[in-house]
Amino acid sequence: MTIPESLNGFYASPVAINTDKKWIIAVIDGDILVVSGARSSGPVIDSDATDLLKFFCERRITLGQWQGRDCEVWELLPEAAATEGFTMIELRTLLMSAGDEEFSLACRAVQLLDWQDKHRFCGSCGERNIASDSEHALECKVCKINNYPRISPCIIVLVIRGDHCLLARNSSWPANRFSALAGFLEAGETAEQALHREVFEEVGVQINNIRYFGSQSWPYPGQLMLGFIADAVTDDITIDGIEIAEADWFRYDNLPGIIAPPTIMSGRLLQQYIDESTLTYG
Ligand SMILES: [Zn+2]
Q1: Cα 117 to ligand 1 centre (Å)
Q2: Partner of 278 for a Cys bridge, out of 121, 141, 259, 282, CB 3.0 to 4.6 A?
């Protein structure tokens, strides 16, 4: 099988092509076991290095292929964390520094395990679901209902007004940590409707000229972040006081102390805005 170059070697599939060597993502309780020190290759472990981990493996799921090799997630017993040559790393910490494909693989690994754990029984009749051999589906043999991994779309939007952008602090965050606005799509809503609604609900601002920027998986749990940039039509801020504790307009070269790194969507949107503003106003 030839994988399109545009996929950068990542091919999400439930089907293994039975390559001699594999890539393994080792998950313990939602966090990732990586090779320690300089030999570390992020969340992906060469199958040659996984002999010590096999004993602890409780569950395997095919993730697809990466760089021409089959890739699997292994769920390991907690005792595996003490294996010599390996180190535990929190998923969130790993995502802050992972490359695009490693990011996708780690999200996929953790999401599939989490999905199987939370869909063990049929939501209609309560019968135990059976995992399909041919696809990532959990089937109720009684109701003939297939359950697929649940993906929940969210919008995240950087609202801009010339050389200023609108950032907000969630009420559970520390002082000086700010982000673009985000929220889940409601059932029946378009992404555009969700953007207008979320921005208005959270900060009381109206927007137009919405530009799609890109998307990213986010495993808390199963979110698909749809990133946008939009222009403000109004600029008076009225925070909701519940989800949002603080919001303000920040000049592109004078942003708050704690913002997201460019590996995640909030940081990507900001980086794009900083780059464009530097050219325009710098
Ligand atoms: Zn059922």
Answers
A1: 17
A2: 282
- Read off the pLDDT of residues 18-67 as tens digits, 9 standing for 90 and up: 999 999 999 999 999 999 875 566 889 999 989 999 999 999 999 999 98
Number of domains in the chain: 2
Ligand 1 centroid to residue 185 C-alpha, Å: 27
Model confidence, pTM: 0.90
Q: Whole-angstrom Cα distance, residue 225 to residue 230?
A: 16
Distance 130 CA to ligand 1 centre (A): 11
Residue 222 to residue 12: CA distance in whole angstroms: 15
Amino acid sitting at position 64: G
**Structural domain of 67:** 5-117
Decide: 133 and 71 in contact? Cβ < 8 Å: no
CATH number, domain with residue 158: 3.90.79.10
